[in-house]
Amino acid sequence: MKSLFTLVSLFLAGNLFFAQAQRDASKEPKAGLIVTINGKKHTVSEGETVRQNGTSVSVKIADSRSFNNGAIAFDYPSNFGFEYDEDIGYKNWMFDGNNVVIMYFEIAQSGSLDSFVSEITNRYGRQNCKVEKKSIKLGGRELFGKRINVNLMGERLRQDFYEIPMKDGKVRLLAFQDSIDTYGNPTEEGIKTINMIGKTITYKK
Fold first, then answer.
1. DSSP string for residues in 24-82
2. What does the alpha-carbon distance between residue 139 and residue 200 come to, in Å, rounded to a whole number?
3. Which of 65, 67, 72, 192 has the fewest CB neighbours in a 10 Å radius?
4. How far is it, in rounded angstroms, from Cα 51 to Cα 57?
5. What is the DSSP pairing of strand 40-45 with strand 57-68?
6. pLDDT in tens, 19-72
7. Which of 205, 192, 197, 152 is nearest to 175 (CA)?
8. Which DSSP letter does residue 122 get?
9. DSSP helix/strand/coil, 153
């Protein structure tokens, strides 16, 4: 049910340049590392090394990874899995946690939020779904979309789909799936994940 489809040294003049923007958005973003040198924390990417004589270096895995496909960028929990799917007129990135799934879709101009949501409810069975309008504020921008509340064979989950309008005419959807309890409350993982994305998300101008 969780799946919808189911340091080369960077120390220059004492400054650390955070890993270059993701070049290939179809590949999983590198895990970030927190490096502490003489009490000062720096963030570097997985696989990079720090070489500095006479210093005390400690390293730990960062709490988040950074996704950037050129249209939007955001941080997500580092323990989430990563999947990418592409077809003609369609791209989908999926980040899979214990209870939460983040999904980002880019669809050709012929698509729409309404038709996308309609297709999903048909797959679950319309009798098992309740659809309502929904909005959310992420990164200082209000996004509008729809929520699908699913109750299927005793399994309850919520899928929120938000449209991100851009000038090129493509349909871009950012979606969050979370398990919910009997009272409709989201999981703690879901709350933390959306808060992280809300604080870090940026959009192409």
1. -TTSPPPEEEEEEETTEEEEEETT-----TT--EEEEEEEEEEEE-SSEEEEEETTSEE
2. 7
3. 192
4. 9
5. unpaired
6. 334 457 888 887 778 888 777 787 877 777 777 776 767 778 889 999 999 999
7. 197
8. H
9. coil
Largest CA distance in the chain: 67
DSSP bridge partners of 33: 44, 61
Side chain identity at residue 35, one-letter code: V
Which domains does the chain show, CATH number per domain? 11-65 (no CATH), 72-203 (3.40.1000)
Task: Compute the chain's Rg from CA coordinates.
Answer: 19
pLDDT, tens only, 90-141: 899 999 999 999 999 998 877 788 988 999 999 999 999 999 999 999 999 9
Tell me the two tokens of residue 182: 């009997």
What tokens appear for 176 in the block?
Answer: 């969050």
This prediction's pTM: 0.78
